[in-house]
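#struct-help
A.M.: can someone run this one for me? Single chain, 144 residues.
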Amino acid sequence: MQIVRSVVIDRHIDDVFEYVADPLNDARWCEKVLSVDQVSGDAPGPGSRYEVLHKPIPLRPPRRLAHTCVAWDPPERIWWRQDDGVDLFEVTYELEPVWTATRFTQRSYARLGAPRLLYSVFRAGIGRDIARQLRALKRVLEPG
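D.P.: on it. Structure tokens below:
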């Protein structure tokens, strides 16, 4: 299952890349992220790994998620692998300049532990969550 959402942020591409490349910022713009700890690597970048406590489903307990930076191409692309033992997401952040602003696109490929019959329901819910996250990212990064 693939889910793609975009937002234009009124900030330079280098600023947006620097912010989203560091998962320690995630709790500020991803409401389902409760905490993030770096468990390997000295800084953000390929090979760095994080343990994330997230709550993807309301009324369910939080899950621990292994969040790994697979590769990056500053300031245009970051590849992540997110695995909580139930669901696996391969996520790409794609950034492109739009004049002095940045178009930020999140492309998520999901392999869910849920039955395929429920994929359309989950696709809609995950898409709403990502759109909400991107609106929050815009609010956090834009001046004023």
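A.M.: thanks! Residues 17 and 33 are 19 Å apart (CA to CA).
D.P.: also worth noting: The chain has one domain: 2-141.
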